[in-house]
Structures are given as C-alpha cells and as structure tokens.
Amino acid sequence: MQILIAIILFEGGYKINIYYQLAILFMNTTRFLAPIRFGILFSLLTIALGFFMGMIFGIGEDAIKSNLGERAASVLETVYQNDTEKAAAVVSKSWTYFKRAHMHAGGIGTAALSICLLVGFWGRRPVVATYTTAALGLGGLGYSVFWWLAGLRAPLLGSTAAAKESLAFLAMPSAGLIVLSVSIVLFFWIKDFFFLGVSKNG
To answer: How much is the pTM?
Structure first.
C-alpha cells in the first residue's frame, strides 16, 4: 500500500513538474519570439505565396500561359509590330519569371524564417532583432512579388527587360533589405561569437 501511494505521489509530482516546465518553455518562447514577430509574419507570407503559386501553377498552367498570350496579342500591332515570334518569346520568358517568383518565395521565405528564429533565440537586443528580421521578411516578400509582377507586365510592354525596369522601385529596395539584413545578422554573429567570445574565454 505504501509503495502504491509513493508511486501515485511520484507520478503526480512528475506530471506537475512537466506542466511547470512546459509553462516556463512557453513563456520563454513567447519572450524570444515577440521581437521577431513581424519578421516571422512576412516570412510566412512569403512561403505561403510560394505555396499558393505552386498550387495555381499545378491547377491552371495552361490557363495562365493562355492569359499571357492574350495579353501579348492585345498589343501585337502596337508594341510588337506584328512580330509573333518576339511576342511568343516574351510570353515564354514571362512564364519563366512566374516560376522564378515561385522558387524565390519558397527559398527566400524559408531562409528568412530560419534567420528570424536564429535571431530570436540568439537573444540579440530587441530593437536590432525587430527591425532586422522585419526588413528581411519584408524584403523577401517584395522580391518574390517583383518577379511575379515582372512576368505579368512583360507581355504588355514588349520585353522582360522593360518590365523589370518599370518595377525597379520594388526590386531594388527589396533586394537591398535582404542584403542589408543578412549583413547585419552576420556582423553581430561574428562580433558576438568570435570576437567577444574569444575575449571572454581568453
């Protein structure tokens, strides 16, 4: 009987301890993730955009290509001077840009999410973590949207180069945010774990 009571008390105490540890873990996780919530949000939106594009491509690839062809045909005389080969080439390249948008959204979104989580659990100053991860996530989203819009506009403008140039206001800041954010994270990582770490251990 005493052994049974001891087992019950042990199991009860063990369960209480597990719940306590889970509560502490949840509170700590919330504290770590709070400064990077915007970065995570933008990263997840970018990943969702990639998934959405992949789903749409799988369901309606022919319809999308047909729509791109119709957009080129609507300006065949004025923009392409009835050059059907050039129009077909631009439509083909536009479809390539759509696929590029899909791949960028998945790749950059996943990388941005990983870096955001690294920064969050790293425990960098909240201000640095908040702005750096938000800029990274927003840059990834903007850069992915840029490729999609470039593919959408190219048939009407007569070339993918013209489409990219018309969207430079979106591409340049987005790419700049990605490069700047990754550079900041890399700088502080080297500073904290190589220079400060060496000096403390030395």
So the answer is: 0.80
CATH for 35-201, options being 2.40.30, 2.60.40, 1.20.120, 1.10.10: 1.20.120
Domain definitions of the chain by residue range: 35-201
Q: How long a stretch of residues is the chain?
A: 202
**DSSP result, the chain:** -HHHHHHHHHHHHHHHHHHHHHHHHHHHHHHHHGGGHHHHHHHHHHHHHHHHHHHHHHHHHHHHHHHHHHHHHTTTTTTSTT-HHHHHHHHHHHHHHHHHHHHHHHHHHHHHHHHHHHHHHHT--HHHHHHHHHHHHHHHHHHHHHHHHHHHHHHHHTSHHHHHHHTHHHHHHHHHHHHHHHHHHHHHHHIIIIIHHHHHH-
Convert the pLDDT of each residue in 79-88 to its tens digit: 999 999 999 9
How many other C-beta atoms can be found within 10 angstroms of the C-beta atom of residue 157? Answer: 19
pLDDT tens for 58-75 read 999 999 999 999 999 999
Q: Distance of CA 185 to CAs 64, 120, 125, 126, Å?
A: 39, 11, 12, 13
pLDDT of residue 32: 76
pLDDT at 200 over 50: no
What is the mean predicted confidence (pLDDT) over 34-60? 94
